[in-house]
Amino acid sequence: MEITNVNEYQAIAKQKLPKMVYDYYASGAEDQWTLHENQYAFSKILFRPRILIDVSKIDMRTTVLGFKISMPIMIAPTAMQKMAHPEGEYATARAASAVNTIMTLSSWATSSVEEVASTGPGIRFFQLYVYKDRNVVAQLVRRAERAGFKAIALTVDTPRLGRREADIKNRFTLPPFLTLKNFEGLDLGKMEKSDDSGLASYVAGQIDRTLSWKDVKWLRTITSLPILVKGVLTAEDARLSIQAGAAGIIVSNHGARQLDYVPATIMALEEVVKAAQGRVPVFLDGGVRRGTDVFKALALGASGIFIGRPILFSLAAEGEVGVRKVLQMLRDEFELTMALSGCRSLKEITRDHIVTEWDVPRIRPAPRL
Fold first, then answer.
1. 36, 85, 254, 353: which is the annotated catalytic residue?
2. Tens of pLDDT along 217-234?
3. Catalytic site residue 85?
4. Which is deepest, 137, 315, 324, 335, by most CB within 10 Å?
């Protein structure tokens, strides 16, 4: 079967992966309302295309934290990629480098920062969870710096793990032949089996629930790398992120895996962008499956977007080739959307190019007497 869009990889991944692994990648928290909404909310935004504009040349290049990339489509951190494919994070790193975009490596990767760096050149960010033992955190940040990573994406929405019922049913744990490579020498690389989710037990034992804004400031004292605060959904927290010295904000609901019934990230984006007032770039993570989605996010003020599950599903289906195809498909669709909307460069994409369902009050029929 010829794959013509990103969504088609999910069905292939479901066939190829063990149920426990597929469910871990695909599922969300509790009722999974936010999981559905992350994608569905994009359908509440329509285009206002402009016509008769010379779009023979389209420029999608952009700069993120000073680094030049080919398009505003980047790779979000997703854990344990070797469960999807033996090459895991190596394949993802090579695919990102091949198309000149940014890969974010998860703290809970099945390849270490040093191993990913060994795949060759590329612009890479490192996603960080704050462990109770701050020496572990400081050591990990230093290793990421030495390995040439360019920024820290600090995940702030996980003081406890969301209730992911599929993982509880499956008694999810990391397969015995894999470890969380960044923690291997620290006796933190293994995940024990438990009566519910092994990951939930691991998080309860290791991740610091006392994490607060003062820790963002502390992180700035131990690294010169720019810090992106990942997990912001409100204007209030956007302002606090900037006060704490964040170099950027990632609007994220953790792929709908933490608190259910939070808004889709595309719904929360504009509020955060307005609060940031251009002081730092704001990025979107969650629900992007089409180039049209990328355009909508940029029209609402995002400086770029990150994709997670499409990377995992394409990795499971076709390894590095699949990841490259996903990035290329989104790039091609985004370029076409720009052309058909009358935009030749990213700076020409504006709020005037879209209309959202929430722009116009819904007209409700009068109640029957």
1. 254
2. 999 999 999 999 999 999
3. no
4. 315
